[in-house]
């Protein structure tokens, strides 16, 4: 990707989904679905979203944060976090505010996306000052180029994930320790890639990291009426889901990790995930917006999955990084 400044239209369309996701998150945060003091800096204004969309994002964000918090506490933050296709995600800052700063947190995306993210971070003291404070206690100053950022704990890396060798080299150049427990996150990333491109990444990570957990969020069930409509709408926007046919359901989502070097795996649809979130908080957010058709929300949640693969060579207890207990 670095060899050309002109991206294929499909890549541009996929990158544009970052703006849509950021806007959706900001709208939901503005309505009080969850707390994020930093998403506002990555999105000036947010278009109104339906209650179904807001609740879908709530389930997505809260479940992933819950799993990440469990992992950070389990490892006492002596760990790595890698966010593949991170876009304008602000999780590093929200975790830092909770006193949960990992040894290394890496957001990875296309250079074109990262260029905008680096510009925003550079201009906003609310984003830049925490990184500078971290670096003041380290030999690593905060360095920002046009498409990458490096500080004591937080990094923005530019990489085409379809090139596994490039990703591996970038991490090695950072001095990345593959024996340190690692949390990998991908949200609607693998599904935009063909299985010929995504499977090598899963296999590379499964072979490279001795103790790691991978959390993946993406759509499933393309063959029913709702699924066909979903695919048609995305195709109209130029976003073909190249990987959905190879992993169309929960069984294949689980098996993919087991096929490529991961010892354990689980997968839930987002309806199941929603039922595992804290009931008092769910009751709170359900009072924020009146939901006329609950069936539509159910269909939406059933067509997305949160899946996981993990390997625990060190025996640190990664099986406890789950959604089973209903506390945040």
From TrEMBL:
* Matching InterPro entries: LCMT1, Ppm1/Ppm2/Tcmp, SAM-dependent_MTases_sf
Q: Which UniProt keywords apply?
A: Methyltransferase, S-adenosyl-L-methionine, Transferase
MF terms in GO = protein C-terminal leucine carboxyl O-methyltransferase activity
The reaction(s) annotated as catalysed by this protein in its Swiss-Prot or TrEMBL entry are:
[phosphatase 2A protein]-C-terminal L-leucine + S-adenosyl-L-methionine = [phosphatase 2A protein]-C-terminal L-leucine methyl ester + S-adenosyl-L-homocysteine
Gene3D superfamilies membership:
Vaccinia Virus protein VP39 (3.40.50.150)
Entry function: Methylates the carboxyl group of the C-terminal leucine residue of protein phosphatase 2A catalytic subunits to form alpha-leucine ester residues.
Report the sequence similarity comment from the record. Answer: Belongs to the methyltransferase superfamily. LCMT family.
Per its record, how is this protein called by name? Leucine carboxyl methyltransferase 1
